Amino acid sequence: MTSPLTLQDWTARTQALKLSTQALIDGRAHAGSAAPLDAVNPATGERLAQVSSCDEQDVDLAVRAARRAFESGSWSAMPRAQRKKCLLRLAGLIQQHAEELALIETLDMGKPISDSLGYDIPEAARTFAWYAETIDKQYDEIAPTDAQALATITREPLGVVAAVVPWNYPLMMATWKVAPALAMGNSVVLKPAEQSCLSAIRLGELALEAGIPAGVLNIVPGTGPVAGRALGLHDEVDCLAFTGSTATGKRFMQYSGESNLKQVWLECGGKSPHIVFDDCPDLDRAALAAAIGIFNNQGEVCIAGSRLYVQSGIYDAFMQKMEAHAAAMQPGNPLDPAASMGAIVDERQLARVLDYIDSGKKEGAALRVGGKRVRNETGGYYVEPTIFECESQELAIVREEIFGPVLAATRFDTEEEALTMANASVYGLGSGLWTADLSRAHRVSRKLRAGLVWVNCYFDGDVTVPFGGVKQSGFGRDKSLHALDKYSALKTTWFSLA
Fold it and tell me: How far apart are CA 369 and CA 342, in angstroms?
């Protein structure tokens, strides 16, 4: 989706934008009992609004509202055709309000408006539409028993699903969890990241407008240690789906054990390897994909190709191309449709990125490009594309997830060497390789310990294919029909016919 709007147009719309800032519980706006959260524009460092912050009591109200809605059958027992129409209407409303939602995402999170409008919002609408279409296309099973019995296998909703989502793709990643959970007939309590709550609140309002009954989708802004923890420990939450850091994911596993043993599905951090062999079929395309793979969305991407491995024979030529792309992808005003990079989400994350850059310098990595905060005069949180050359794989910038536009590049000689370095990580989310050798493409992709492997491309995907990882990147899967497994239970019913 593109728009003819200019920087001046988007700036003017910012002045007229009305933001919803309260929690949404049981179909009504709710003020929240904790100290309000500041929604800060990363492009300027200025406060956009104050947002309701929910504490344990507020979360309890939301969970109980979701439970009542589920038990009433207003959604869970709604005829499938009608439930499908509601989700399709919601998809249509997201499309109808695309420019408003894109502006909210950009102001709240700092990403370029061209990305919000061109990718995030259309993907959110498509996700709801796609899962709506699955509702009347799911079949139950009959087991192959003998003639004296009939055994049916039916898929049922779990009940109350808590969805805790990150700040880097606020609306899109919320839909990856909310859409399949609702399609299965569950009620949902959505906790957006405290850095980017605004689009989730608007989603809740649009869901009510689409005809989804009150209490079926509740929005509880709040902090992780308070609202997130309350959801993790709540005995009336049947399933918790989370995207975010590995450390937080581990805490949710603990909360489950301390409470009702709720299902917990995790999509956690990544430190994805991006391998370019010397028989790469198109160095220009590979270099552009590698640059987008780390600098897109300011590097705030769980599948960012933050570890680049280039075979020695093409290393120098390839790195020159990477340098040129970095120079062309400098941060700009996120409201400028021409900007290819925006601002880091907040001051805390800015400090984290800059600390890692300092760490890389101190540990002996060679800084080839970037490394500085820029656009200081705006008051915003901008970091230029940064490329380090790293001989050692023990550096913090090679091992740890930075979530910023910082690339660690290393040369290699053999396929075995590349695989050893690529797999030497606690993470296993994304990975990529470039080669013209079909046998190598199959061989290496099978040996890469990752949930996602791209061959001669990077970042490509669709709602039809699973998204998730292995190792400490978690084990949950968003998108595709497989996501429905997270939000449903199989019931066996045995009928004696004797």
Answer: 18
CA distance 251 to 319: 40
| Strand ranges, E, within 103-243 | 141-142, 149-157, 160-164, 187-191, 217-219, 239-243
Distance between CA atoms of residues 329 and 183, nearest Å: 39
Q: Which two tokens stand for residue 101?
A: 């939602």
Report yes or no: 76 and 185 within 8 Å, Cβ to Cβ: yes
Alpha carbon distance 389, 366 (integer Å): 5
Residue 2: per-residue pLDDT: 65
- Structure confidence at residue 396 (pLDDT): 98
User: In the prediction, which pLDDT does 102 show?
Assistant: 98
Q: What is the pLDDT of residue 93?
A: 98
Q: How far apart are CA 256 and CA 268, in angstroms?
A: 17
Q: For the purposes of burial, counting CB atoms within 10 Å of the CB of 472, is it exposed (0-12), middle (13-18) or buried (19 or more)?
A: buried
What CA–CA distance (Å, rounded) separates 244 from 164? Answer: 8
Determine phi and psi for 345, rounding to 5 degrees.
-60, -40
Looking at the chain, how many residues does it have? Answer: 498
Looking at residue 1, what is its pLDDT? 63
* pLDDT < 70 positions in the chain: 1-2
User: What DSSP string runs through 362-382?
Assistant: HTT-EEEE--SEE-GGGTS-E
C-alpha span between 42 and 344 (Å, rounded): 6
CATH number, domain 273-462, options 3.40.47.10, 3.40.50.1970, 3.40.309.10, 3.40.50.10490: 3.40.309.10
Question: Which pLDDT does position 3 carry in this prediction?
Answer: 73
CB 341 within 8 A of CB 330: yes
Strand-pairing partners, residue 307, are: 273, 408
Distance CA 442, CA 438 (A): 6
Contacts of 397 (CB under 8 A, 6+ apart): 356, 357, 359, 360, 363, 365, 388, 390, 406, 408
Write out the catalytic residue numbers.
267, 302
- Give the Cα separation of 217 and 203 in Å (integer): 9
Angle CA(46)–CA(47)–CA(51) in degrees, nearest 5?
160
- Domain spanning 7-268+474-492, CATH class: alpha beta
List of residues 6+ apart from 241 with CB closer than 8 A: 161, 162, 163, 164, 177, 181, 264, 265, 476, 486, 487
User: What is the model's pTM?
Assistant: 0.97
Structure token digits, residue 457: 């491309």
Torsion of CA 304, 487, 481, 445, to 10 degrees: 40
Q: How far apart are CA 344 and CA 350, in angstroms?
A: 6
The residues spanned by each domain of the chain are 7-268+474-492, 273-462
Q: What pairing do the DSSP bridges indicate for beta strands 307-311 and 239-243?
A: unpaired
